[in-house]
Amino acid sequence: MFFDFHALDSRDTYKLMASTVVPRPIAWVVTLKENGKLNAAPFSFFNVLSGEPPVIGLGIGRHGADKKDTSLNIERTGEFVVNLVPAPLAEAMNVTAAEYPYDVDEIDVAGLQTLPSRKVKPPRIAGSPVALECRLWKEIDVDGLRTIYLARVEGVHVDDGAVLDAQRCHIDALKLDAIGRLHGADWYVKTSDNFRMPRRKPDTPRG
């Protein structure tokens, strides 16, 4: 079946995009508020866009005409930390997904601990297996409805238990125990179900 996005309203195009491009990694973003408190919120319109230079893309919608707290903080400071969500912290992540008033510290509400970052001011979430320290590079407004943030990754923290060879930068992705988003508002996926398929070469006969 073909869905013509020009014939659908924004609610339906969102549902189709969110339920067909799966699984999506979750960016658990930590930013600093003007009052010095922390903001933490998950976003699944996110991915790595470039390895060299290291660039990630993060799409954040709005509340009507108002930008979300994460957007305001990123634009004001130019810094944020993207934490991946491990299965044991899924419920805490879900707590921070609620819409709290600006003066509420979501880290505190979710009972999370933080660790200092190296290159940016916002801290990272303790217990997250991967934390990308990001600095805003470019900002793209999408029809006043969503903002796409392109950011350079200044460095990444990886859980020691997932590092196979630090010198060669080899990581065991399975040990990260990361979760992702699936269709609908409440569905998630674990990375524990996987398979390996070596990349084919042009002269490799089909098996």
Automatic annotation (TrEMBL):
<dbReference type="GO" id="GO:0016646">
    <property type="term" value="F:oxidoreductase activity, acting on the CH-NH group of donors, NAD or NADP as acceptor"/>
</dbReference>
<keyword id="KW-0288">FMN</keyword>
<dbReference type="GO" id="GO:0010181">
    <property type="term" value="F:FMN binding"/>
</dbReference>
<feature type="domain" description="Flavin reductase like">
    <location>
        <begin position="19"/>
        <end position="172"/>
    </location>
</feature>
<dbReference type="InterPro" id="IPR002563">
    <property type="entry name" value="Flavin_Rdtase-like_dom"/>
</dbReference>
<protein>
    <submittedName>
        <fullName>Flavin reductase (DIM6/NTAB) family NADH-FMN oxidoreductase RutF</fullName>
    </submittedName>
</protein>
<keyword id="KW-0285">Flavoprotein</keyword>
<comment type="similarity">
    <text>Belongs to the flavoredoxin family.</text>
</comment>
<dbReference type="InterPro" id="IPR012349">
    <property type="entry name" value="Split_barrel_FMN-bd"/>
</dbReference>
<dbReference type="Pfam" id="PF01613">
    <property type="entry name" value="Flavin_Reduct"/>
</dbReference>
